[in-house]
Design brief:
This protein is α+β, with helices and mostly antiparallel strands. It contains two helices and seven strands, in the order βββββββαα. A hairpin with a 5-residue loop joins strand 5 (36-40) and strand 6 (46-50).
C-alpha cells in the first residue's frame, strides 16, 4: 500500500482518512487547505484541525434530550424557546442547497471558518 505524507499525517492513498479523521489532502473540501482534517461526532459535535492556519476547533452540539434536567441532574438555567420546533429546511433542488446536515454540514462549517480566518 502506497502511503502519502502530509505534514504530520500519513494515510492510505485509497481513502481520505487517517487516524479516524477525514483528511483533505485531495482537496475534496474545496474551501479548505489540504492539511485540514476533521471528524464529526455524536449529536452534531465536530472537531477540526488546520495546521497551516494554526487552527484547532471543537463545535459543541447536542440534541435537546441530551440536556434534559431529568437525565443530567442539572438545572437548565433558561426557558427553552419552542418556536422553531416544527421548522423544516427547504428541500434540495437546483435552486437550494437543502439541509446542510451530516457530512455536508461538517465540511461546510470548515469552509466557512477557513474563509473567515483567511480574509
Amino acid at each position: 500500500m502506497r502511503r502519502e505524507r502530509l505534514g504530520y499525517l500519513a494515510f492510505p492513498d485509497h481513502t481520505p482518512m487517517g487516524f479516524l479523521l477525514e483528511v483533505n489532502a485531495d482537496g475534496h473540501v474545496f474551501g479548505a487547505p489540504r492539511d485540514a482534517c476533521f471528524k464529526s461526532g455524536a449529536g452534531g459535535s465536530d472537531i477540526y484541525v488546520v495546521r497551516s492556519l494554526d487552527l484547532a476547533m471543537y463545535k459543541m452540539a447536542a440534541i435537546d434530550a441530551q440536556s434534559d434536567p431529568q437525565l443530567t441532574g442539572l438545572p437548565l438555567g433558561y426557558e427553552p424557546d419552542p418556536s422553531r420546533d416544527d421548522w423544516k429546511p427547504l428541500p434540495h433542488d437546483q435552486f437550494h442547497d437543502g439541509p446542510v446536515g451530516g457530512d455536508d454540514g461538517v465540511r461546510r462549517l470548515l469552509e466557512m471558518v477557513v474563509a473567515a480566518v483567511v480574509q
